[in-house]
Amino acid sequence: MAAPTTAPKILLMVTGGIAAYKSCLLARLLVQAGFSVKVAMTDAATKFVTPMTFQVLTGHPVATDMWGDRPSDALDHIEFSRWADLAVIAPATANTMAKAAYGIADGIVSTMLLAFPGPVLMAPAMNNNMLRHPATVANREILAARGVNFVGPGSGWLACGTVDEGRMAEPEEILSAVRELAKDLPAAVAIPEETGFWTGKRVLITAGPTHEPIDPVRYVANRSSGTMGYALASAAVAAGASVTLVSGPVALTPPRGLAGFRVVETAADMAAAVGEVLDAGADWLIMSAAVADFKPAHFATGKLKKDVLGDGWSLALTRNPDILGEVVPEHRSGPESDGLRVVGFALETDDMVGRASLKREAKKMDYILANDPTATGSGFGAENHQVTLIGADGIIWESASAPKKALAKEILQQLARTDSSSGG
Ligand code: CTP
Q1: Is the pTM of this model over 0.85?
Q2: Catalytic residue among 75, 159, 160, 400
Q3: What is the pLDDT of residue 4?
């Protein structure tokens, strides 16, 4: 008979940053996902959130003090470290990273960390200048070289009032990083099964712009950053889906835990990649890429020179394949992608719902997410975004203006709700 398996035991160490409040949600997500969780907090962390919050969320006493009155206090640091399979430091401050890099053990968290021999995941969170300080950069390198894993930080609104890199990764992202790391634990430790609508679904997401070359140094492109598609990919991974991301050229780091990741340049490349993934099998296609509708009619193999082009230059363009309209129908009828659900996007400035509905029908999408880039709380490069989800019977849901990561999660929840109730 196989040896009994147990859920992985997570030691969640919370250090002193405002992001500590998000670690409460992380603790809840980990517990809901079936992990056993014990929490240790630095003194500074207890100034942001109380140990009682974590005690209630995890059902275990929280270690905060090596020199407290309880008889167990002096031994907690060894006991917790011995108990855990995996350590997560979230948020990980610059100070904690520095101590960990140099093996300093002057408090409950730093001591536990030194006493813990297993895999470690850090979710840094700090002011942007602290993050870029050569000391922090060097400490992170030392830790990474030693095998410490990192998730984030991402960009966004920081507590110091700036919008920059330094924000702790979202709890869902940290959860999916924990799931990834847990895969390497001994077989006797079973990762809890995920059971939601998206669990095990094969989801293909496209993101970013396409670049259509004019000559070896120039191209036609658009301003898509890929943020929405990457946020959807990350949310789908966190929801348990098997996600393949096909991305145009963007400056983003792919989320952890993807089943497949393809970087493409042109609309033709993206069309080919989408076709291949659909042929291999997919349950959902979410086309968030801003595919270029046109490409230069001729590609010049040598750089076009000004003196040859003269004072004016007319660039002849020709239509690209419409991936949703022309390429997907050829691949969705195969046995592997039978039952494929297709979600597209539409950018409309006039009669948004009417036009997006027509587009949905014309391109045979099941759902379309429409947005108006000129509306307040939305648009290119904006931190927040607003979408309207439209199906065969009209508007299904109008989102509030929200950060793209939070919005991505809500979009998936809405799609799950709608599709389950329509028998999908
Ligand atoms: N799309 C595609 N292939 C293209 C162009 C777009 O599959 N060659 C997809 C996009 O990924 C998106 C949807 O189609 O999901 C957008 O449709 P589109 O008609 O391009 O709408 P807009 O981008 O809003 O452009 P326009 O209003 O100019 O038609």
Answers
A1: no
A2: 160
A3: 42
